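Consider the tokenized backbone below.
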């Protein structure tokens, strides 16, 4: 009995010692982010593109192996676009998946083939429509859905001084506006991912009150392809990760807006942006893929409950650690 008790204590100590891991997986302009809790449970946000012999799912599989993940407990399909849901059928050829979450049916009157393939795959899966305010029950982490289906959380927040003078835009993509956005917390560490949330929906979430609060790391909405509203500055991220492709996302106007975020220490990129050229890209040290076509390199974040975290570039093995905020 003493040995059993000792093993239980050792197992608990091992669990507490394991950091949160987030893999920003290169899908060459799409999106796939793998989150692994200290408990060992996993959440995948989006699955990249389909076809190309399952390229994106193979890259997800490679990241999962590095994190010792054999099953994906939860998948969020943030919205119904081919660069986010397209890879789901390929994913299911490689993994058992516990539960799928999405914001509900597409708004398009004539769905494309990737949406039809996704719906066909869901007939054999456990699937739930997620709402703003819900939580993802990943053991060891607090994960709150802050946007979904065009709605946002209603919790009060601090007044956002950066909202002044921001005007709404017209003709926004409705499926992008339905994006599932989440905030992931491990103790004092906070990470935000809003998928492809549109300008107007970001304003509704952050203005006149910032309902998200401050975050340590923020993954750019829309792959860094469009300028973010100034209201985002209230989140005061220390690090921004741009999940752009060589020729998708990473626009110069968006890059400059993110770089101007108050308190920003570094902007990391999955790709060197061809459009950004030498004037609107981070130094090569902070870019996972510098060539086009690329090698499919990833960025990895590891975080501790005290709020400290480390970024790692798989291309050049560059590592930078950010101490906990005081």
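A designed sequence for it:
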């Amino acid at each position: 009995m003493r040995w059993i008790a000792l093993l239980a204590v050792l197992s608990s100590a091992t669990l507490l010692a394991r950091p949160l891991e987030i893999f920003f997986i290169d899908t060459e302009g799409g999106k796939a982010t793998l989150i692994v809790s200290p408990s060992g449970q996993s959440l995948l946000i989006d699955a990249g593109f389909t076809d190309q012999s399952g390229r994106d799912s193979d890259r997800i599989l490679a990241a999962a192996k590095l994190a010792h993940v054999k099953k994906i407990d939860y998948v969020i399909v943030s919205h119904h676009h081919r660069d986010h849901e397209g890879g789901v059928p390929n994913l299911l050829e490689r993994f058992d998946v516990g539960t799928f979450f999405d914001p509900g049916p597409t708004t398009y009157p004539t769905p494309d083939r990737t949406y039809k393939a996704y719906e066909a795959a869901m007939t054999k899966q456990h699937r739930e429509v997620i709402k703003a305010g819900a939580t993802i029950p990943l053991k060891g982490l607090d994960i709150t859905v802050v946007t979904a289906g065009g709605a946002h959380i209603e919790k009060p927040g601090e007044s956002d001084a950066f909202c002044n003078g921001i005007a709404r835009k017209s003709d926004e993509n409705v499926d992008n506006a339905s994006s599932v956005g989440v905030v992931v917390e491990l103790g004092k560490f906070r990470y935000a991912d809003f998928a492809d949330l549109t300008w107007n929906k970001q304003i509704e979430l952050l203005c006149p009150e910032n309902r998200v609060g401050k975050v340590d790391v923020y993954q750019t909405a829309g792959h860094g392809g469009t300028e973010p509203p100034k209201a985002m500055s209230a989140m005061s991220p220390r690090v921004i990760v741009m999940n752009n492709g060589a020729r998708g996302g990473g626009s110069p106007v968006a890059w400059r807006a993110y770089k101007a975020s108050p308190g920003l220490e570094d902007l990391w990129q999955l790709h060197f942006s061809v459009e950004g050229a030498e004037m609107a890209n981070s130094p090569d040290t902070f870019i996972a893929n510098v060539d086009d076509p690329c090698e499919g390199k990833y960025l990895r974040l590891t975080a501790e409950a005290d709020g400290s975290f480390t970024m790692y570039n798989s291309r050049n093995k560059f590592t930078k650690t950010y101490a906990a905020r005081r």
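The chain is about 20% helix and 25% strand.
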